[in-house]
Design goal:
Structural class: alpha+beta
Shape: elongated
Helix content: 25-40%
Strand order of the largest sheet: 5-6-8-7
Distance between the termini: 39 Å
Largest sheet: 4 strands, antiparallel
Order of helices and strands: HHEEEEHEEHEEH
Number of helices: 5
Radius of gyration: 18 Å
Number of strands: 8
Number of domains: 2
Mean pLDDT: 82
CATH architecture of the largest domain: 2-Layer Sandwich
CATH class of the largest domain: Alpha Beta
CATH topology of the largest domain: Gyrase A, domain 2
């Protein structure tokens, strides 16, 4: 809290605690024995709160479209990696994998029908479509 206040953020302990919980951070011991907060992992995947996913998508995604079994998600410049990372942290049916660039990421689906369904699901998270 002291560092936040020194940098112009007027915060309370309750606010910091709530933000830590919403970001799914956990306290971990470093190699030197001190503590720090790190992102919560389950297995090999980073898990974000669904609200974080919604926020990043609403702020990042410009367009969602598909061709065959490939879903293309167009983002504002520099935002595709963040949007893809939170997409990967969620559970989606029939996703084979993702690939992110600077302003676009693609999702490889198992079928064209699955691509259509994913587009419909993702469009609810962005008002631009």
């Amino acid at each position: 809290m002291e560092l936040l206040r020194k940098n112009g953020f007027d915060v309370t302990q309750a606010t910091v605690s709530r933000d830590i919980r919403e970001l799914n951070l956990v306290k971990a011991v470093t190699g030197s024995g001190s503590y720090r907060y790190i992102a919560s992992y389950q297995g090999d995947k980073l898990h974000h709160a669904s609200g974080r996913f919604e926020t990043i998508f609403k702020e990042s995604v410009v367009k969602i479209d598909y061709s065959g079994n490939i879903v293309l998600i167009k983002c504002f410049n520099g935002m595709a990696n963040a949007a893809c990372e939170v997409f990967d942290s969620m559970v989606w049916n029939d996703v084979v994998g993702t690939l992110a660039g600077d302003d676009t990421f693609i999702v490889l689906m198992r079928s064209a029908d699955a691509a259509v369904e994913l587009c419909d699901q993702l469009r609810q998270y962005t008002p631009r479509n």
